[in-house]
Amino acid sequence: MKKNVWIINHYAGGMLFDQGGRHYNFAKYLKQQADYEPVIFCASSEHGKPRQYFDTQDLWQKHTSEEIGVPWVFVRARTYVGNGKQRVLNMIDFYKNVKRAAKKYTANHEKPDVIYASSPHPLTLVAGIQLAKYYRVKCICEVRDLWPESLIVYGLLKRNSLLAKALYAGEKWIYKKADALIFTMAGGCDYIVERGWDRKIPHSKVHNINNGVDLEVFDYNLNHYHHEDSDLDNPDVFKVVYAGSIRKANNLGLLLDSAKRVRNPRIRFLIWGDGDDLPFLRQRVLDEHIENVTFKGRVEKKYVPSIVSRADLNFIDGNYSDLFRFGISLNKLFDYFAAGKPVIMPMKANYNPVQEFSCGLTAEREELLPQLLEQAATLSEEEYQRMCLNARKAAEEYDFKNLTQKLIQILES
């Protein structure tokens, strides 16, 4: 008998149109691999944009993915831009309306057998717990961002403020009430111990499922969508590739700094993507005469496998955060693993998959990046190929087919 699993993610609307993303892939493989019928509840508003996915004032609308046969329930929430008052009100809209919409949804659809509620913000988890109580089913709470810890680390909230204390109390309540906890970062138990909550929240209910890659889709795109580029096909250069968003958070200024310092003339930096930091970085390349960096522009996602698979080295970084002591869950990293090429990561982080699988080079200090790049360009063929094989092994470990099996074990425990 099939089980109905409700996946509640405020920001999952775009996954229906992008045909990808964490909960899209979990829904896809829950339906394929097990006796589950997933339903995804999300907000009607586009994340950070002044528009709705659909022009309607209805409390909820159902739209089913033609690709995977999973319904999305879009719950009414106001639009917002930025991180001010309107975004907070948008969160409250979703929190209130998803509970109303869920109860109306079950007037003509089956009730859930289990609820899987995913952050980043905690009100989604509270709604999941309350709906689970109403339907007398289990609620699995997934933590993809630590609130209020993230707000404090990034200087948006003072640790000893009344609001921070209230948010910590709410976070503890969520962790206690959830039937199981999933952290995308591997150090979830470390965080609970650090907060002093481990007596009330046993390690047995804490699980880790990182982000991942859908190898089925990656390999299909690699075989069917070739990206023409003469630099990628040049055997005389050592190609360091970045493919993704170009924003301050991606720390590509560091890559330009390092490009100026490397001495090996074979090393070239090829950057694909777009974002609000791109004009500034382009101007830096011109003003500072950085001749070994080329910006390639934006490409459709289906061409990314063709690009990163022809790199000699794939680059990933992010501005260091104290939160990295609990681990990292960077989406781009798993696409790089799937490419079967070494990864370079000049970023201090615990539970680092690049180190765990020995599939690249890492450093705890950013200023060591030029040395790492020189080292990578002179690896022996044997060592280089070993890293390539290890990268693909890492991708298989983080393939959503395998991650879904971990999720199923938690749903059924």
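(ticket continues) Second input and output from the same batch:
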Amino acid sequence: MNNLHADANLREWATYLHLSQLAGLLVPGAGYIVPIVLWQTKKDEIPGLDAHGKMVVNWIISTLIYGAVGALLCIVLIGIPLLMALGLISIIFPIIGAVKARDGALWSYPLCLKIIS
């Protein structure tokens, strides 16, 4: 029974971790800070959450890099659609990650750079 509770706890917090990226829609910058704080405070308490946290932080770093490249490419106008696409997938991917986490799976974000392993 204890194992069942631990699994449910992991699923719940992993879901929160992925969805916390959307906090940036309400408060600028919160979508970067909240997931990192959640991960750092809970990773030792909940076995398995560390993998979700690393995936989320890698995605955050990836979006920052892609955003910087897109901003530079705005000079030649190709960056505008790239930034629009990045904004869209920055909403969609965390939702997919949360659904997969709720189902007990670790979802690898497409296009995610593996910076933290």
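Agent notes: Residues 57 and 99 are 18 Å apart (CA to CA). The chain has one domain: 2-102. Closing as not reproducible unless the customer responds.
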